[in-house]
Amino acid sequence: MQGRRMHQDGAVSMDIFLQDFADAPADKSEAVQRVLGPYFDESRGAIITADGDAEVYGADDTPVNGLMFTHVTGEVAWDLMYEVAVAADWVIMPVGGPVCIVSEEQRATIREDLEDVAVVLVHSGTVLLAVATTVAG
């Protein structure tokens, strides 16, 4: 599928968006800093984990009202993606894949133009990785 692929080295090359659907999204910079701060390398615009990394866009925006991850390697980055989505109350949207919600309450916030897209409740980074790589495969 165009826009995403799984590399031989295990990197998932797709854009993964985290956001909410509020008319006026709130600044989530504190939640993002709390979760990603210890892993964030400002010089690379990426999170660096024990088993990989991921490029992160939007973390230095003012206000922070969404993120995009790409070129994700390892499993810890997926855990962090899930954790920051929970902390910020964001949904996770791998391009071309389902809308991944982190709480059942988020189901009611999905925009009308996405009603035909599958919605999957994810409970961990491991589940998120499985959903994203199934889509990417």
Short description:
With 137 residues, the chain is an alpha+beta fold. The protein is 24% helix and 27% strand.
3D structure, described in words:
The protein starts with a strand and ends with a helix. Helix 1 packs antiparallel against helix 2 and helix 2 packs across helix 3. The strands form three sheets. The protein has a six-stranded antiparallel beta sheet, covered by helices on one side. Strands 1-2 form a two-stranded antiparallel ribbon. The protein is an alpha+beta fold. It has one domain. It is built from three helices and ten strands, in the order E-E-E-H-E-E-E-E-H-E-E-E-H. The N terminus is likely disordered.
How is the secondary structure organized here?
Elements: E1 4-6, E2 12-14, E3 16-19, H1 29-36, E4 40-41, E5 46-49, E6 52-57, E7 66-70, H2 76-88, E8 91-94, E9 99-101, E10 119-121, H3 125-136
Parallel strand pairs: 9-10
Antiparallel strand pairs: 1-2, 3-7, 3-8, 4-5, 5-6, 6-7
Helix pairs in contact: 1-2, 2-3
